């Protein structure tokens, strides 16, 4: 017990040092926290001229009729709305960037119960032999139904109360995943800072990933700090942005961290106008998570740095996802589990799960 307390003290001391370094050299320019109690949050409330922050066009040359989400809906965003994104840019980013991030997450969206635009997505393997479906309502809270044929798909560790899924990501383009995160960061950035990111905006709006004008410069940034927190407590969607206070410090000008449930993504957002001396491999700042900042109980934090420079589609990539659980029922019949529910709800669940009576 004494050893655990000592490790906890060392961890807190390290976090305090990181926070001091962050506070000395960076200013937090936004901290958006998704809450059920809050109404829609307009990121750019003062954009009265209806000018798109990405293409620079105004009405009537472009339209602003679609509800543009500053963070994609599939990450659980129902609140953060962007007025300064035209319909054309909204459609472009959805087709070329957001679909890659969605595919990159794969089974994570189902198992972590990310309630997106069309609810919680069902997961199926390519051969459709394995399947994960989540039913969520007031009576059941959440019921995860897993159909498994291959033993390797799911491993159960009852001693440590973890489930480990062994599957593949859906096809995705790594650099497009990174571009999508850059787009989210720029959507949330105060308009006064956008003038330093004109080259970055041109880069993410370019459909071609083999843009020789920017590619050689941007690949210095395209690394993703990915974290998974072992905890049975989930946090709401949260996005934070930090801008460098002075140009003498050699860290990135703009750090962005996006947290959802018990995962987080952190990137350095390209800023060629400000990052003259920047080298991502020297002294990167790993921003503490909400778990560490707010003292939320967790067992472990797994940090992985992903290289997102590849410009071609990856069709088969292994994905191992381990989640903790407090209670687990094995080999249950869904009919027995839902027997006490109302007839209409039972019919809906059976239809969703394709179960015969």
Please, could you describe this protein's structure?
The chain is 26% helix and 25% strand. The chain is built from nine helices and 15 strands. The strands form four sheets. Strands 1-11-12-13-10-14 form a six-stranded antiparallel β-sheet. The model has no long low-confidence stretch (mean pLDDT 83).
Topology:
Layout: H1 2-25, E1 26-33, E2 41-42, E3 68-69, E4 80-82, H2 87-105, H3 108-111, E5 123-124, E6 131-137, E7 141-147, E8 154-157, E9 162-168, H4 174-188, H5 198-205, H6 215-218, E10 223-230, E11 235-244, E12 254-261, E13 263-268, H7 290-294, E14 300-307, E15 318-324, H8 334-337, H9 343-353
Parallel strand pairs: 2-4
Antiparallel strand pairs: 1-11, 3-4, 5-6, 6-7, 8-9, 9-15, 10-13, 10-14, 11-12, 12-13
Helix pairs in contact: 2-4
